[in-house]
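ARCHIVE ENTRY
Sequence with per-residue tokens
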Amino acid sequence: MPEGAGSAQAREVPTEGFPNYEVTWTRDSQLLMSIQRGTVALLNPNTGAKTPLLSQVRFPGFAFPCPDGRIVFSALSGNKVVGHVFRADADGGNIKELTNGKFDSLPVCSADSKTVLYMDADNKLEKVGIEGGASQEFPAYGLFARITLSPDGKLAASVANRPGETKEKIGLVPLDFSQAIRLLDFERHRVQYGSVLGDEPILFTRDGTGIIYPIREGQTDNLWLQHLDGSPGKQLTDFKSEFIRDFDYSYDGKQLAIIRGHRESDVVLIHDSGTQ
């Protein structure tokens, strides 16, 4: 849908197979989709054509495009039951393993395409070079949501919790890890829809002045813009139904891709009649 447009202008892009759980825009206006059960694909939003990627690795997901066209993603490492961060070319080739932790996930690429930030098994923020090497940890806080980077490449933001506290805050961390984390209260309650711990989306605005995240009223999610300078935020979308699973704005800020849906469940009553 066009940025700033009403929900009536949203156009559905037909997809088949398992549900999509993450969407990001590439610089050439394709949609990089992470799909349930470990599949990554490029989707043409105009034609609906889908191109599978990264089939040579086990359970790829949380794929994120770098500004230089390459892709970072998480996947299982070899025959081990451990998750690492990898890098690949735009076509999914030339894969390189970047990390060696127990469970490294939710990678994002810096604005200069030289650094990858990710969350480790202890919910700590770490970073590693795009060519690999030693990782560096930011130890002060646990992070419990996907990481987003400011367009100027100076700040990383995520959802932060002090140990023992239940109230979530927005944590702002300098990309060079040179200063203490800056904590902000959420202006509105952030909704949680993801099936994997910590994968609910937050996003910097394209001008870097605010953070966007889903909020919920009843059975409906919409996007909320919170300004970092403390000025009042505002609701950005006007949907009347469905939950928001993920979203992303195109590089020029003119288009919004959004995954929306709902949960269905049944209750079955099992009665013991007492007979043999």
Summary: The mean pLDDT is 88. The chain has one domain: 7-261. Residues 13 and 47 are 8 Å apart (CA to CA). The chain has no helices and 23 strands.
